[in-house]
Amino acid sequence: MAKYIMTILPAEGGLDMPVIQIDAGRMSKEQKTELIKAFTESASRILNIPERAFVVLIRENPEDNVGIGGTPLADRSST
User: Fold this and answer.
1) Does the CA dihedral 53-9-6-26 come out positive or negative?
2) Are residues 41 and 77 in contact, defined by beta-carbon separation less than 8 angstroms?
3) What is the pLDDT of residues 11-34, one digit of tens each?
4) Cα(54)–Cα(17) distance, integer angstroms
5) Nearest residue to 54 via CA among 65, 43, 46
6) H or E stretch at 36
7) What is the pLDDT of residue 13?
């Protein structure tokens, strides 16, 4: 389960501050570090915006906090 959203938020002085958001299940610190690095490098290269301008937000959602088709994801995983 992962959802990726990228938004460009206006910052002070009229400059853009790109924000990359990801909703996903639980991750290790190493996985988060790798995602932050990969998303930042890729978006910087594609958008031609310096890496230092990017903010990456990771929201972890436990399986019991997510439902699909009326069933908690935690229940679907155990069957």
Assistant:
1) positive
2) no
3) 555 556 788 888 888 899 999 999
4) 6
5) 43
6) helix 29-47
7) 54
| Residue 49: CA count within 13 A, CB half-sphere | 15
Does residue 47 register a pLDDT over 90? no
How far apart, in whole angstroms, are the C-alpha atoms of residue 29 and residue 56?
Answer: 14
Q: CB neighbours (10 Å) of residue 53? A: 15
- Pick the more confident residue, 5 or 70: 70
Integer Rg of the chain from CA: 16
Q: What is the pLDDT at residue 32?
A: 95
Q: How many Å apart are CA 28 and CA 45, to the nearest integer?
A: 26
What domains can be seen in the chain, in order of their start residue? Answer: 27-79 (3.30.429.10)
